[in-house]
Every structure is written in C-alpha cells, then in structure tokens.
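thread from #wetlab-drylab

HS: before we spend reagent money on co-crystallization trials with nickel (II) ion, can we at least see a predicted complex? here's what I'd submit
DV: go for it
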Amino acid sequence: MPVNAANLSILHYPEKALRTPAKAIPKASAETRQIAERMIELMYEAEGIGLAAPQVGLSIALFVLDVPKGDKNSPESDPPSATSDAMVFINPKLTSFEGAPEPYEEGCLSLPDIRGDVLRPPIVTVQALDIDNKPFTLRASGLLARCIQHEFDHLQGVLILDKMTQMSRLKNRTAVRDLEREGSQKK
Ligand code: NI
C-alpha cells in the first residue's frame, strides 16, 4: 500500500506500531526517500535528534538522525560523536560494541515528558545502506553512538521504558500511566 509521506506524524506510546519489529527494506525507492525526508522534517519540528520509522507507524527498518555539534559532541572527533548533517540508515546492523556500558539520561519523541537513565556501551559500529542504497559503515562515540543504539532499538520494538534503570522507572511511573490512559481514550 503506498504511503503518503505528507500524512505521517509522530505516534506516542502505547501505540502498537512502536512494539512491532520492523522489516528489512528490499530496495530503497522514491517512496522510501519521501518517507525519510518527511521523517527528517518531523524530527526537526519536534526538536529531536533521531526518529525511527515505527514512530511514524511504519514497520520498516529505517531511521534518521541529526546529532548537533555541542560542547562534548563533534563530527570531527575520532570516532565522531555528532553528525554534520541529517543521515538516513536503512536496514542497519550493529556490528560491534566497545567499552563498559555507561548511564545517560535519554528521552524519546514517542514518550513525551519521560526521561530516564539508560546504560549503553560508549562506542558502537553500525553498518547500513544510505538512501541511494549504498552500504556504509560508521563507528561512533558519545551522543551519536547513543542515538544510533536508541533508534536501532525502535526497529526491534524496544523502548527506553524497557531499558531504563529501576530508579528512572519509578520516577516516570506516573507519566507512563498518563500516556497509557491517553492512549486508551483515543480508541
Ligand atoms: Ni525514541
């Protein structure tokens, strides 16, 4: 079924699409490009640094990100911890993890008002296809490594709710319940 990219919007937990594992994209098409472009637009509008296709209701293995340069993050560091522009990842695979997992407070555009500490390895290598179907490999650190792992989780139907520390889980209990209530009212 063709997707009208203009109609895509960011879905909130507990929307079912967020829990549906994504399927590989056989070959990126003009439609895939429109979807990616729309997702980048939605990500910027929401002031996010990453967005995965399940978050817009599509169970396809695609995410976009744009991690801005900051005090600690730079596209020039080795390995890079930020991007110099928006990037598209199609059919990504995480091929190696380096370093002991570190906690860092994460948020998610599908989980408004929720922030929690998630433990993740500080360096990750990802292999993916770009929007022109060209394979690339990226070894990333810092916020970029974290964002890649967060978006990759979305493609498996995994949310930060599943990975956050017990303390963060307790702290966000009410916010999670509120989202679940809003979700059931929409039905
Ligand atoms: Ni997210």
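DV: The domain at 5-186 is CATH 3.90.45.10 (Peptide Deformylase).
HS: ok that's useful, forwarding to the group
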